[in-house]
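Friendly challenge for the regulars: who can give me the structure tokens for this chain first? No prize, just bragging rights.
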Amino acid sequence: MTEPQEYPTHYSHVAAFVDQYLRYVYQRQVTDTTDAVWCPEWWRHSEAVARLDALWRAWENLRQDPSRGLSIWFLDHADKHMAKLLDPNGPFKYCSARHGHRQLLAPLPLRTPPPGMFNEVSDDVTYKSVVQFVENYLSMTFQRQVTDTTDTVWCPEWWKHHEAVARLDSLWRVWEHFRQQGATGLSEWFVEHADPHMKQLFDPRGTFRYCSARHGHKDLLSPLPASEPQVGMFSNPEDVEEYQV
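First reply, four minutes later:
Bragging rights claimed.
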């Protein structure tokens, strides 16, 4: 296996990248507006740090491709991350360019599942289980106003929802995969996996429909209704001759 080529970074760290490049490229009206927000102290926001660090690393990697690199960086990475950061319902919800930082968002509320509900893995991973991942990373990163709102919902007992368990477990596993790649890895994790999954989980019509961060879990949803298909309507590929080896 060939080792990745080492190259010096143009910017020494993410703060230099934001200060000397990103804020000049993405000039927006964020002073007297409610449709685009920005926090001058972006480094106080876990999500902003994670996204902008991933964005810087992706830029340092893709700039090595003189033909398509920066175009890919803009379309596949920067535009998607900046849309989330500039979103007035995103991590800078209560901050403003005029008045500065306001620490009003908190990590997503959580209740710890019963012992033994989730098995820990022994692989070379940062978090040994999806519970550790949600408690120590995801809830800290995706801080949202989920208490006094109807457009973003969250269940502190997410582990009581089959869909949430399946989505968050897959999100944890793919995060462990991408974190080892460097380059564009964590940026891809955000835009291709975390953002779509979290959009579904935060949706007030989704799996947390009747739950709330304030009042907790309500078990009011049930599996989709289903009836048995006709006998012989579906066959096992192993029973069909052309599929046999």
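The chain has a mean pLDDT of 92. Residues 69-86 form the longest helix (18 residues). Your move, everyone else.
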